Amino acid sequence: MKEYMEKTLGGGKVASQKQFLDNDRKVLRFFCECDELPYVIFYYLADDTVQISEVHHPNDGRDAFPKVLKRQKLPYNPVMNQPGLTFIGDNYLTCDEIYPDRPINAYNRNYRINGVDEATRQYYLEHHNREFALGRIEPPPIPEPTERQVPPYNGFGSEVDSLGYVYALNPKKPKGDFFKSVDNDKKVLRYTARFNTRVPEDVDRRFIISFYLSDDSVSIYEPDVRNSGIISGPFLRRNKYKNVDKNNEFITPTDLPIGGDIKINGYSYHILSCDDYTVKYLQTHFD
Predict the structure, then answer these.
(1) How far apart are CA 21 and CA 194, in angstroms?
(2) Which structural domains are found in the chain, ordered by start?
(3) DSSP calls for the chain
(4) Cβ(184)–Cβ(214) below 8 Å
């Protein structure tokens, strides 16, 4: 009576204790496919239970559910009984009813067998004289890496700071050269320059180009020229700028020769002269 009550409630012991002792930890593994998606079906010989698991790959776009069907006996009739009620005599799937050319039906879903592992293949050859093809879950081919396209600099902030949004989802503040900033703190090279132009209104305009050695940034100030009609003040804010004539590399002191030309932020300047500190610095470090 006790065994009968346990089985009516869905429990009870294994029909054969010898089956459990002989097949404990022995699992058959089938590599299947359903709706063009890969699955792995595990059949536990100890108690004839079945578990179905999804196979996931990186970036497959599907939620990572660990199991499609938790470990249980797989009935032939998928009709659900009343909660807690299981009739004695229900037919369940057993390992001898699995064939290589037949799909495994689990709750009205057919899982086509594509292959098995080596242990499962040997088991069926020895016990049921059936030959299953060896197989495995093939990962999808690795896509070719796409070329990262860096958008053009929009002029807001520094270019190094803007690139942080390209290489990281949460950009970090760019780190400068600490020792360089300490050694060259408050060291500024100053040049006087004019426009390379024939426009009469711009011929007499003069500029002071300041090159900051601490971070290789450049700023341009336009001094007051009498009767020029142009208000003096900052002409170009301090920032790092590229030399378009030198493979778009950042401007260095060697790009500012006396009597030479330099293009900064779309304007072409002719370097006229520099102060005494700049002359001594250039002679000491670049001669």
Answers:
(1) 96
(2) 2-127 (2.30.29.170), 184-286 (2.30.29.170)
(3) -HHHHHHHTT----S-HHHHHHHTT-EEEEEEEETTEEEEEEEETTTTEEEEEE---TT--S---S-SEEEE--BS-----STT---TT--B--GGG--TTSPEEETTEEEEEEEE-HHHHHHHHHHT---PPB---PPPPPPPPPPPPPPPP-SSS-HHHHHHHHH-SS--PPP--HHHHHHTTT-EEEEEEEES---HHHHT-EEEEEEETTTTEEEEEE---TT-----EEEEEEE--EETTTTTEEP-GGG--TT-EEEETTEEEEEEEE-HHHHHHHHHHH-
(4) yes
Give Cα 24 distance to the centre of its chain: 42
For the segment 119-135, what is each residue's pLDDT rounded down to a tens digit?
A: 999 999 999 999 999 98
Residue type, 183: D
pTM over 0.70: no
